[in-house]
Amino acid sequence: MKSVPSLEDRFQGCFLGLAIGDALGYPTEFLSLPQIQQRYGPTGIQDLVGNPALHSDDTQTSLAVARSLIQAGQDGVENWMAALAQEFVAWLRSPENDRAPGNTTIKGCQNLESGVSWTDSGLPESKSCGAIMRVAPIGLYYHSDPSELRLAAWASSLATHAHPTALVSAEVTAFCVSWAVAGVAPAEYWDRIKALQTDSVQAWEPVLGKSWERSGYASPKDYLAQGWKELLVEFVKIPLAMAKDSSDIDICDILGGGWGSDEALACALACVLRFPKDYAAAIKRGANTGGDSDSIASIAGAISGAYLGHNAVPKDWRKRIENRQLLIDLSKQLCQRHSR
Q: What pLDDT is recorded for position 242?
């Protein structure tokens, strides 16, 4: 009988899981599924490329979120967001920020650097997946505090992505990670997601500013309701994507390319739901798509790794991932900080 992963095992599984998913999908980003199969064989990409295998900006910004939580996650959202803004600006100017970062994230970080408040620095028109590919540490850290999790997920999105669908998608992604680290089976997520909506649209707090007003909505409730509407439109397609699942069918043809936060989350959940007990199969499914493959595989990897623990991640991949020790160290620090 297999032992249940400890909390530290799950934190580590999430960190390694997201980075390895990111690294597996990084070489296939911007390629169609036929192009992937032409380059890597009929089954597509099946192994990490390189030693170390390089991850993208998805992991870099996730680590920025983790560092800010370790520094100030217990000090209130305003102090934490000040720390996160510093981390984002440091990442913006880092010589390692050369992994095809998203335009929205870059612009949001430039706004932060110029002194714009995090409540106003995000782009109201953008719901791209940069808002959700980095929220896994929030789901880990606040997994036992739904209100703080929601607030932190929204705030982290607002810094760069102020579209309501980006905020709601960040919230739901963080909740999925929180359920995974608590050992909740992926099959239960859909019912739990639907149950979030009623509280979510009523939960706006003044500290978050007035992005809803900048976006042209009459109230925060209307703003968030639109985000939920767009997200759920994508989610109802997941069963169809799973019903047609095979190595020759691209789930992005059904669920969208994953460039939007709602599409990326739907694609990632389809991978996890298809392979709830197989980390490697889940991220391979995400990496072999014609959409934003590194983000899809990274989000799927974060959820799967948090649910299954780090031992479910192939040992060879754990050895070869870029920044392996940093990922492990930060996962342990975040777990310890949470426990205190």
A: 84
* Residue 150 contacts residue 172 (beta carbons within 8 Å): no
Neighbours of 239 (CB within 10 A): 13
Residue where the block lists tokens 């980075």: 19
Side chain identity, residue 70:
I
Condensed to tens digits (0 to 9), the pLDDT of residues 166-201 reads: 999 999 999 999 999 999 999 999 999 999 999 999
Nearest C-alpha neighbor of 318 from the set 6, 3, 9, 7: 9
Q: For the packed helices 220-235 and 189-200, what is the interaxial angle rounded to 10 degrees?
A: 160
Residue type, position 223, single letter: Y
The residue written with tokens 């703003």 in the block is: 223
Number of residues in the chain: 340
Nearest partner of 276 among 172, 184, 144, 141, judged by Cα: 184
Strand partners, 161: 123
* pLDDT given for residue 2 in this prediction: 65
Q: Which residue has the tokens 């980003």?
A: 29
pTM higher than 0.90 for the full model? yes
* Distance between CA atoms of residues 197 and 184, nearest Å: 19
Give per-residue pLDDT as tens, 304-315.
999 999 999 999
Task: List, for residues 110-160, the tens digit of each pLDDT value.
Answer: 999 999 999 999 999 999 999 999 999 999 999 999 999 999 999 999 999
Q: Give strand pairing partners of 123.
A: 161
Specify the CATH class of 7-339 in words: mainly alpha
CA 297 to chain centre: 10
Which burial class, exposed, middle or buried, applies to 218 when counting CB atoms under 10 A from its CB (0-12, 13-18, 19+)?
Answer: exposed
User: What's the sign of the alpha-carbon dihedral 172, 175, 181, 184?
Assistant: negative
